[in-house]
Design goal:
single chain; FAD/NAD(P)-binding domain; 3 domains; seven-stranded mixed sheet; 9 helices; globular; FAD/NAD-bd_sf; Lycopene cyclase family protein
Length: 392
């Protein structure tokens, strides 16, 4: 069976749903394109995820948020580190289930198909997606443009490739153990691994409830038992929560790499989201960049222009990220000292704008002076000599 439309979006995660919604919201007088959304069958979808981002004032997804905060803290290994005010910014937490439910009504005009995509290919006049539904039927979808949010089967060649891997517990305590106004962004009171770095991460949902995560930057994920052991140490010995119960869990691994993601693998085929380079290599954050890409693509479609997803992050910041990742990978840069020094000497709001790519070069130079300059310069000189390799 063959179906034709203006646009096919592959994948119903943050990137696919955000793009589909924005495509259906054209300015007055502009026709909305016909959009087909291909999502994986129920048994093949990823588990629920938590996305965090920051922005000034009210945002498009505020009614769907689990929580938001105006202050955050980075703790040194000795526990020091004051809570920092974010100025006009708010740090926001959004659960994937709430996001999907909230966008359901906004996506009423989208034709949705549950299927496994087997092939995406260019055609002279557009592109086609061949997929198979759960009953075994083969569907061929043709469109002027195709946006594919599936991660590539083979990651792009890179000079340095780490993982931000983590496991989190949603906990409910008997006593009021958390400060609801403040996110513990990085708490380095965790045993540091031989390679990379580790930290605790606390998103308080009230005085008795929070999402508590153990996170590492390293080359490979851990066995689940190791995460649970680290979480028990962090919740019981570091945070001293007292009696608590775990109400839900989440786990993941985010690529942190200087690989170059191809946003246009075909004339009429584009990659979006993490597959299109939306993940910030130095932090693992992607949601805000996904929104920028989605808005830009939808605006181009509505204006009748070639809707190529723009770069998610400025090239100069990606170059700085590559230096940091290499420095962490070699051990040349002490991760806990690096991040605590930045947050001690740079206003939190400015640092978050830097991580979002909205700072000016003069601000970035001032931030760079708060890093271990000699180690960074040595690593920057070394990077061009390294070969890009494909890693599993």
């Amino acid at each position: 069976m063959t179906h034709s439309s203006d646009i096919v979006v592959v994948g119903a995660g943050a990137a696919g749903l955000s793009l589909a919604w924005r495509l259906l919201a054209p300015p007055p007088g502009v026709r909305a394109p016909e959009v087909v959304l291909v999502e994986a069958p129920a048994g093949l979808r990823p588990p629920e995820r938590t996305w965090c981002f920051w922005e000034a004032g009210a945002g498009d997804y505020d009614p769907l948020l689990t929580a938001s905060w105006r202050r955050l803290r980075v703790r040194a290994p000795d526990g020091g580190g004051p809570a920092r005010d974010l100025g006009g910014l708010r740090y926001k937490m959004l659960r994937s289930s709430a996001f999907e439910r909230g966008l359901r009504a906004r996506l009423a005009g989208v034709r949705r198909i549950e299927a496994v995509v087997e092939r995406v290919a260019d055609r002279p006049d557009g592109a086609e997606v061949v997929c198979r539904t759960s009953d075994g039927a083969v569907r061929t979808l043709r469109a002027r443009w195709v946006y594919d949010s599936r991660p590539p089967s083979v990651p792009p060649p890179a000079r340095v490739a780490l993982l931000q891997h983590f496991r989190g517990w949603f906990v409910r305590c008997e006593r009021p153990a958390f400060t609801p106004e403040t996110v513990e962004l990085m708490d380095f009171r965790t045993p540091q691994p031989e390679h990379g770095l580790s930290f605790g991460y606390v998103l308080p949902l009230g005085r008795h409830e929070a999402l508590v995560e153990y996170t590492e930057f390293g080359r490979a994920p851990l066995p689940r038992s190791s995460y649970d052991e680290a979480l028990r140490h962090y919740t019981e010995r570091v945070l001293g929560l007292g009696p608590y119960r775990v109400t839900a869990t989440e786990q993941g691994a985010i690529p942190m790499t200087d690989g170059r993601y191809d946003r246009r693998p075909g004339r009429h085929v584009f990659r979006i989201g993490a597959a299109g380079g939306a993940v910030r290599p130095s932090t693992g954050y992607a949601f805000a960049a996904i929104q920028r890409q989605s808005r830009a693509v939808a605006d181009a479609v509505h204006r009748g222009r070639t809707p190529v997803p723009p770069p998610a992050h400025p090239a100069r910041l990606l170059a700085m990220d590559a230096v940091l990742l290499r420095g962490l990978d070699t051990g040349r840069i002490d991760g806990p000292a690096f991040f605590t020094r930045l947050f001690d000497h740079v206003p939190a709001a400015r640092l978050l704008r830097f991580l979002d790519g909205t700072t000016r070069p003069v601000e970035e130079f001032a931030i760079g002076l708060r890093t271990p300059v000699s180690a960074m310069l040595r690593t920057a000189a070394e990077l061009p000599l390294l070969a890009r390799r494909t890693r599993p």
